[in-house]
Write a structure and sequence with these properties.
The chain has a domain of about 140 residues: Alpha-Beta Barrel (TIM Barrel), CATH 3.20.20.70. About 40% of the residues lie in helices and about 20% in strands.
């Protein structure tokens, strides 16, 4: 089975022009891009999403929006990534129109997300990461426990690199999410090929 890589965006981490970096990432054929730019909304977010969407045209990469299902609906991008809490609160507003991924931080959340119709879950954070400096990682045992107890695809997030990607696959994950490593990479296409 082809192990999948999801790119989670954070333009503030880019050392170079963000759209130039996104083009290079998309050229590396990640399975999905999750546009997660929490500080943007309205027209600015829509403009950025449309620019990334155009870069994905003709590629195998799917585009998901993080949390903002209203923008996703306006742009007719019917794929969304939600926190577990938002998934539970807004479920009636997103079904049956959207394909939904859900971020989970416990086995109970993963099981409930599955029972409520999530397409996949993202479990984290697995390794130490600068994005969660004050929180200890949950580790590979946590990831394995979720993978063993749900039937939908589980993606690892948090500190994933080319050096530990194999470990998350061995723990049962369908793939992993990369943010910092792709946003900061000098050659993200090469990084994706190495993974």
């Amino acid at each position: 089975m082809d192990k999948k890589i999801i790119c989670v965006t954070n333009r503030k981490l880019c050392k170079k022009d963000f759209l130039f970096q996104m083009k290079k990432i998309i050229d590396g054929n990640p399975d999905r891009i999750i546009v997660r730019e929490k500080d943007l909304s309205g027209e600015k977010l829509e403009e950025l999403v449309l620019q990334i969407y155009r870069l994905c045209q003709g590629k195998r990469t799917s585009l998901y929006l993080h949390s903002d299902f209203e923008t996703a609906r306006r742009l007719e991008i019917m794929k969304i990534q939600l926190s577990f809490q938002l998934f539970k609160e807004k479920r009636d507003l997103i079904y049956p129109d959207f394909q939904v991924g859900v971020s989970v931080h416990s086995l109970e959340e993963a099981k409930e997300a599955e029972s409520l119709g999530a397409e996949y879950v993202i479990a984290g954070h697995i390794f130490e990461t600068s994005c969660k400096q004050n929180l200890p990682p949950r580790g590979l045992g946590f990831l394995n426990e979720i993978c063993q107890n749900v039937s939908l695809p589980v993606f690892a997030i948090g500190g994933i690199s080319k050096d530990n990607f194999t470990k998350v696959i061995e723990a049962g994950a369908a793939g992993a999410c990369l943010m910092s490593s792709l946003m900061e990479a000098d050659n993200p296409k090469e990084l994706l090929n190495q993974i």
